[in-house]
Amino acid sequence: MKKMKYIILCLCAALGLTFTSCDSFLDITPEGQVNRDQQLGTTDGIEDALYGAYSQLRSTSLYGQELSFSSLEIMSQTLWCYGNMSTAMTINALGNYEYTYSGVENIFEAVWISMYENIRNVNSIINSPLVENATEYPYTIYRGEALALRAFMHFDLVRLYAEQYTVNPAADGIPYATEFSLNTPDFESLAKNYEHILADLHEAELLLENEDKYEGTSNFMLDRQIHLNKYAVKALLARVYLTMGNKEKALEYAVEVIDSRKYILKEKTEVVNDLAGVLSRKETLWGVYFADFFTQVNAKLQQTTSYYSLDLRNDFMELYEKDASGIDFRVSAYFSTVDQGGTPKYRLCKFTDVYEQSNNTGQRPSDLILGINMIRIPEMYYIAAECLLDVDYDRALNYYNEVRTHRGLDPLGITIDNGEESEEEGGEGVEPADTNLTIERINEERYKEYIGEGQTFFNMKRQNLSILSHDGETVHTASKKMYVVPIPDIEKENRN
């Protein structure tokens, strides 16, 4: 099977046998150096190392939980948990941005350590002799993916532990690690961080530009959705440039990804189960293979265990009912109800593998890839709409409506009369009270589309928005205290 090699490596990772292996070839010792050089001296060894680096992203401290459906969603006030037991207390502290609370400190210390450990592993690949000065296939592909992965990880660290660039471009940043070393490099400015991120992504873009001609020529070049492929890199560039406030470049890359038609919006009837523990067939530019994702999300999201499982914010459905002309297919796809003491309770079932849940995995289509969706095509439409909103309203509206209509909603700015569409002005239908596209509407659609995927908090931070608490009782005013997670004490201690 074409994914078998990757699956085997991921199973090894689950047993603590990632590409560091039993011999710990990444250890900084003479023996470890020899093992490392031997492993990275062959194409198979480099590919194994890259698969290992990808597999580390699905750890619970990273995108297997905290940076996807858990901590970041709690911080966006989307999910919550009441109670006074330790887990619930940590969740409540997280939702109140009490980053010095011990349980919260532990979460973000683990994020920091796990991310830099994996960055160090990726640097081992980048600095290896066959990859460091790569000019020919397949080494150009290896280097491109590794550089993109390094940039991706640093970017999310910056989004967590540093100020928003457009709010304070002179802010302090984080260490940007480019060498294989146990020592984390010195801290640098936020501006320098973004220079490094863009440099890595642009080099990756060049190295991966011709990957299409090699697609399918080897096992490594199959299933490009589980690799940081060239379109995922371009999408990352759109995301980074938007975060920096460079809308011209963000638009350029977003439109390039959309116009490639390599990844397209699914039809509204395809929304159900499209993200249910699997990578979207049509929309996922990049995802992480994770066979056990169901175990993680089922306990946290599907179950209703007191003081542990995560509940949806009280008023979440109001957003799906707002401007809901048509049928939003995401509602039935993303949410379910379970009986709790005779009362139906909403659950976020967006990622729940329906085949696992029904003990019927044998019926799962063989072409589905189990895992976590990291970058999906709708984001590019939202980026394009936002970037064009003040300069080309009609184009912005078109990009915005593309996602709406593919989710089952009627297009904004168009009235319906006897089943026929007519333009907002001059149409004979009953015009809604307000059909103008605004940044607020774009944010609302983003929220509805990406609920549970760990992107909402970053979108709020990027725009320096205040956040309404999950119970509707408190407005958390945008501030550095809320949006910047402190550097873990362990990092400071290691430098003394």
Topology of this structure?
Elements: H1 4-14, H2 30-39, H3 43-56, H4 71-75, E1 79-80, H5 86-95, H6 102-126, H7 129-132, H8 139-161, E2 172-175, E3 187-189, H9 190-207, H10 230-244, H11 247-260, E4 284-289, H12 293-302, E5 311-312, H13 316-321, H14 330-334, E6 335-340, E7 343-348, H15 354-357, E8 371-376, H16 378-388, H17 393-406, E9 414-417, E10 420-423, H18 439-450, H19 456-462, E11 467-468, E12 475-476, H20 480-483, H21 489-495
Antiparallel strand pairs: 1-5, 2-3, 4-8, 6-7, 9-10, 11-12
Helix pairs in contact: 1-3, 3-6, 3-8, 6-8, 8-9, 9-10, 10-11, 11-16, 16-17, 16-18
Give descriptors for this structure.
single chain, 496 residues, mainly alpha, Serine Threonine Protein Phosphatase 5, Tetratricopeptide repeat, 9% strand
